[in-house]
Amino acid sequence: MINALSIDLEYWWCSEFLTKYLPDEREDILRESLNPLLGLLEEKDIRATFFVLGAVAEDYPDIVEDIFERGHEIGCHAYSHRTLYELDAPEFEREIKRCLSLLSKYNPRGFRAPSFSLDNSTRWALDVLQKYGFQYDSSIFPVRTNLYGVPEAPLGVYRPSKGDVTMHDPEGTIIEFPLTALRIGFNVPVAGGFYLRLLPRWFLSWAIGRVNKKRPANIYVHPHDVFPDVPRINLPVFPKFVTYHGAANSLIKLRHLIDRFSFKPICDILVDVGS
Cα(163)–Cα(160) distance, rounded to whole angstroms? Predict the structure, then answer.
């Protein structure tokens, strides 16, 4: 079984947990945090999907070009990292148009909503994605957290109904590849990101192995998830934990998963499963 690996290419301060606490002046570590990750993928000859924030593409077109030249898929992550919960359809459409204008050379086929903010309250986004020619989405996380989640959604690839994103519509135009959760009485998120930093290596390996008995996994990281030197700011206990916990060992964990399992870009996985 070959799994999907994706990287959300955004700034470290984009986390919703940090919004209220950010200083006006912030240290930009995008290059420093990305380089070890790109180096690992190059070393292991792994290609991935990079969901690129439009603001990053605007500031660092050379980085996006380098990623593309290395053979990775370029996807769209909207422009500003405002969540769908904060937008209406016209505002979201403007975000998409602005991001696509910066990524037009790469013809993005896939989209990921900031903070996995696609659910039934924001399902109108599917119409916008269809209008702009996207073939697939990877925004639905079938778990429940205080920020996001659609725990009733299918665990595997499906075509969400525009009337209810938890339902498969065989005629649906957008393919959904949800982030990976393992069902063990309830859905446990094992897709990467904070969960890569939080969960022990043995559990991640075991969980992905279990998932692979039925379907490919969809694993993601941010560059700052695998970089121990994210700038420190004054935070309450929980946001501090979510922001910094486990970063010192997460690149080692990712290396272990890459050594044990096979990965490639989302677009290639969807071809393989016939969607």
Answer: 8
E strand or H helix at 136: strand 136-137
Phi-psi domain of 75 (left: phi exceeds 0; alpha: psi -120 through 50; beta: other): beta
DSSP H or E run through 219: strand 218-221
Give tens-digit pLDDT for 109-152. 999 999 999 999 999 999 999 999 999 999 999 998 888 999 99
Strands 49-52 and 2-9: parallel
How far, in Å, CA of 163 to CA of 120, rounded?
Answer: 8
- Tokens in use for 207? 């969980």
Residue 170's alpha-carbon distances to 117, 124, 180, 275, in angstroms, are 23, 18, 21, 10
pTM to 2 decimal places: 0.96
63/50 Cα distance (integer angstroms):
11
Dump the DSSP string for 182-210: EESSSEEE-SBTHHHHHS-HHHHHHHHHH
Q: What angle do CA 49, 53, 55 make, to 5 degrees?
A: 150
* Distance (Å, whole) CA 192 – CA 143: 13
Handedness of CA 196, 197, 199, 203 (dihedral sign): positive
How far from 132 is each of 6, 78, 104, 125, CA to CA, in Å? Answer: 21, 12, 12, 11
- Residue 2 tokens read as 């070959």
Q: What percent of the chain has pLDDT over 70?
A: 99
* C-alpha to C-alpha distance for 245 and 225, rounded to whole angstroms: 9
**Tell me, what's the pLDDT at 275?**
58
